[in-house]
Amino acid sequence: MMTQDWLQVASTSGFPLLTLLTLLPTAFAVMALLIPGDQPWAHKALGLCGSVAVLVVALATFGVVDTSLVGLQRVDDFSWISALNARWTLGIDGLSLPYVLLTAGLTPLVFIGAWSAIEVRWKEFTIAMLVLETGMLGSLLATDLLAFYVFWEVMLVPMYLIIGIWGGKDRIYATVKFFIYTMFGSLLMLVAILYLYHKGGGTFALHDLVAVTAKLSDKEQAWLFGAFALAFLIKVPVFPFHTWLPDAHTEAPTPGSVILAGVMLKLGTYGLLRFAVPLFPSAMGRFSWVLVTLAVIGIVFGAMMAYVQTDVKRLVAYSSVSHLGFVVLGITIFNEEALQGAILQGVNHGISTGALFILVGYLYERRHTREISEFGGIAKRMPVYAAFFVFVTMSSIALPLTNGFVGEFLIFAGAFKEGIQSKILFNATGMSWRMVVLIGTGIATLGIVLGAVYMLSMVRRVFFGEITKPENLRLHDLTLRERLIVGILCVFMVWIGVKPAGWLKLSETTVHAMVAPIRPQILQVRAPADYDREMKAALRAAHPMAAVTP
Amino acid sequence: MEGNPAVLLPLIVLLPLIGGIINGFFGKRLPKQLVYAIANGSVLSSFFLAVLSFLSLRTATLTNPEAAFRYEAFSWIVAGNYSFDMAFLLDPLSAVMILVVTGVGFLVHLYSTAYMNSDDGVGRYFSYLNLFIFSMLMLVLGKNLAMLFIGWEGVGACSYLLIGFWFKDMDKAIAGQKAFVVNRIGDIGFVVAIFLLLAHGNGSVDYDNLRSLYSDKTHMLANSTEITLICLLLFVGAAGKSAQIPLYVWLPDAMAGPTPVSALIHAATMVTAGVYMVARLNFIFALSPAAMTVVMVVGAVTALVAASIGLVQNDIKKVLAYSTVSQLGFMFIAVGAGAFAAGVFHLFTHAFFKACLFLGAGAVIHALHHEQDIRKMGGLRKKLPIIHLTFLVSCIAIAGIPPLAGFFSKDAILTETLALKPATEALEKYYEAGFEERAVSAVAAATVAAGKPVTELDRAAVDKQAKVFKQDWKQFVEGLAMWRKLAFALGLCAAFMTAFYMFRLYFLTFAGQYRGDHHTFEHAHDAPPQMGVPLQILAVLSVCAGWLGMPFAHGAYNKFDHWLEPVLARGKHFLHGHMETSMEYALMGASTLVAAAGIFLAFSLYKQGPSPTTAGWASSARPVYNALLNKYWVDEAYEVFPVKTLRATSQFLFQLVDRFLVDGVMVRMPGMILLGLSNLGRLVQTGEVQTYLVGVAVGLAALTYYLI
Description:
The complex is a heterodimer of chains A (about 550) and B (about 700).
Chain A: H1 17-34, H2 40-64, E1 73-81, E2 86-92, H3 97-117, H4 122-141, H5 145-166, H6 171-199, H7 206-213, H8 218-235, H9 244-251, H10 254-279, H11 281-307, H12 312-333, H13 336-367, H14 383-396, H15 403-421, H16 433-444, H17 446-463, H18 480-498, H19 501-526, H20 528-542
Antiparallel strand pairs in A: 1-2
Helix pairs in contact in A: 1-2, 1-4, 2-3, 2-4, 3-4, 3-10, 3-13, 4-5, 5-6, 6-8, 6-9, 8-10, 8-11, 9-12, 10-12, 10-13, 11-12, 11-16, 11-17, 11-19, 12-13, 12-15, 12-17, 13-14, 13-15, 13-18, 13-19, 14-17, 14-18, 15-16, 15-18, 19-20
Chain B: H1 8-26, H2 32-63, E1 69-79, E2 82-90, H3 92-115, H4 122-141, H5 145-163, H6 170-200, H7 207-216, H8 218-221, H9 225-241, H10 250-253, H11 259-268, H12 273-280, H13 282-285, H14 289-310, H15 316-337, H16 340-367, H17 385-399, H18 405-419, E3 420-424, H19 425-449, H20 459-510, H21 518-523, H22 529-544, H23 559-564, H24 569-572, E4 574-576, H25 581-606, H26 612-620, H27 622-629, H28 634-684, H29 689-707
Antiparallel strand pairs in B: 1-2, 3-4
């Protein structure tokens, strides 16, 4: 087996930068604790300052990370719970870097957006959001499984509160559903983690456990992979584990929706990539067809569901199911093109869907309804808003030169490459991987059309035609603050769309280094003949002389 | 010229983009005149630069016929083995295209300053129009398929925005959405073809790379299922953008947009992108005679069907829209038949006369206060002399009367359809030489498959196999040749109809007596200079543009053909059947006669306005007339499937799968059951110590029993 260089420590840091990054939001949350709750402006300022400070540290981290290095960088490794040999291990690489930037970048915007979206209990809100940010950053940076699990759960409580306190009419139902559903998945994962801990001779370190899992029986691998994957698939969410999402989104206040769609869902796909696949590559190979099937159903089904929603926010929520189906498809394919596309598509979805939720929030703040039928013709009253909305729609339906296109294009390109270059041979489960990929991806292309159908129908019914409701005659266009928030996101949509090379470079080295050892193990199970062929090609490339001698 | 002319290419593309951005952000606050100046100025500068780069390319080709200018801006997407550059390529084909796009584009901009002057959204309008020019230039100047696709989707988005420009009218917004969605259906084909090309190739869809790849690999992929599939998928994309059966339905509805938009986007430039794409990838299409034949036949059927619908339409723009669909069909006959240069030539001449027709129609509509029904027109010849003359000239041009432009291009298409053979010379040679070789490998494969060792080949079996292959190939090619005669016949019928419906339109609009509201007639005014000048320039081009392709007879010198030869060389390699010069002249005469007959028929029926004779025909053949008038009910059929079907299926799945099965049975039922169980459990919690003690005792007893 090839070594998992990409999980090795590439550089340690004298100054605990990543620890600072992770704990800084909580530090600000503690400060908020000390300020009385009857001063909302103070909390508004504190939340913004705190999240901007985190952004600055994140940018500094970006500055010191060398994206051409293989392995985890700026690693902080301290003893944490010594009795369990659980360690505080934080490290960053090309897999987590884009999402760390996304998290740190979105949070200040969410705080500014919340100035009008959140009206009560600002103190509690600020604390919840900041603790949530610690949870997200920690989940992205931790490579010790127990630490990861703790951060993963830390995310859950603030989001539970955000939906439950500041949410809409059915917020309690939605938030309990969200909590129990996610908890169910993560408890299974905890069991799996403890099993691994036991098998691995008492370590939670991902790098050590990767060596341990290779020795497990197929059955053990399958069960453990199932536990991990389920936790992550619920979070993504992948069909059929998605029904908590529309409820949570519809009831959540705008800041909650933005963070939920923008970052938290992506932690599901990140978890698959960071933990589930590297730990259990052959199980991944065996269940690839399941994941492809679920992803493709998610893409088409999510889009069809979005088409019949009457609530704009529910529509966007279902569109997330569809979009994240693409990401899961890319991860399952697991070649460099599709992986790079999937990682970037995660970021894109965070930006574009985040922007859509913010925009829907603006409308909700004005009219206190999100029913499509309540609107119509409002482009006349709110031209700037309409322009932003149409632009973000174009990004969401993957128009070239916007961010959405680059990710989707690469995922499809990678998937078709996998299908075409795979030969028709049956794997251990009697399934032709070539057929699974080609048929699945072929069906998934319907998502290209369906995306345009549901988004443009919604835009048309909300913005075009004559104004029929008198309430809409009084709508006022976006304020400067509102324009600024969406404007910033739009700049990123264009930036990633026009010059994606720099963004793709963030994860290029890591992806290359992780594909090298993991892909063969996946292939060995799901397409043995391809494995032989690719191995030989790799050997030939590495040792030109080896080709001569049989 | 000093320096490298390639640096002009990004400038040509960027100027309209900058204009579009300025007008998009500030158009509302800028004075109208400044908006016009920015929009027109940017496109005019692009046009001058385009002319400049065209001239330098012409100079360069004098010394090196293969000369082309390449400009690599930056690498766009890089991942794994795949990479796509932002790069521009100016070769003879893209040079022709940018001249048309910026030239006609500028004229339409100029025309729009008068046409849209009373609209308060001019900033937005010119911003979209500039962005369209930008996208179209990306499409034709791109150096690889990814760039082409950027432009491809970009023009689609601009088209969506411009069709729905007057968005307060819901029908217009719906038309815009329909255009976008139908185009997207085609785009699936296009992108999947790109992915297949990538997967079969070496990770790049650069034209230079593809060209060398598919010239080298002729022997591997030639006439294979893979290449046919790729070509057909590409054609699905082309059919979407260029409004071919079955994806043409969006184009007639697209007439909801402002008329200058129809002239530029839905006649002269965007809709020809599909033809451009097929011509651009001629070296790939040439490898699949089967796919080429499909392209040709679909083009021919579209040409005929659309022309037949055009016969009875009463909306001036609808007639022109179906005429466009039909003319695009002609272009696809050409590229499908291997006459790539003739197809591009028709694209070129069509851009002028159809833009002239649309702008003329727009001027009429403008003059008559938004009247579009030709039954309420008539007698406008004297009233609108400039519009009348230019409209007449372009009608003659499209009808195909020599020596106007349409005659040369249309005749070239019809002639070559008959003259060319379905397979290229290279393919033919490969098959001639390769039967033996392929038979050997087929027999070997069969031996292996049968589990026998391949020690010595069975000579007899190989010979037999080779004979079978030879026979199959002969039959295949002969079968394809049949389709060419059909395409020719359909094309000729469509040409007759074209002449007829165009002159029906002309006579109903301009001849006879005015049949509308007289107040409107009194106030009707001829085109102001901003509209008149573009019309006159386009009319002159409709007369002269065809001369570039003259004389067109085979073996003779044809400037247009010759200019495109470096790009469309593979097209040239289509086998020429034996055709006498006299035959060519006969065909010329036939096509002229057909056109003249169509015009004469229209003249005799409509010279005094609506004809009682045709009204009689319509009532005696009511079903036929209704079918034509209702466009064969295709829109209604699509309304049922897929539009309504999709909504109903989605709704059904939402209720059954999403709400009931997944959310109800899978997610909430376990919760409910748990809740029920815990309620049961609550019954046990009585709070009485005695009950608990009984429980403990029973438990202990059971445990003891189990352990023993």
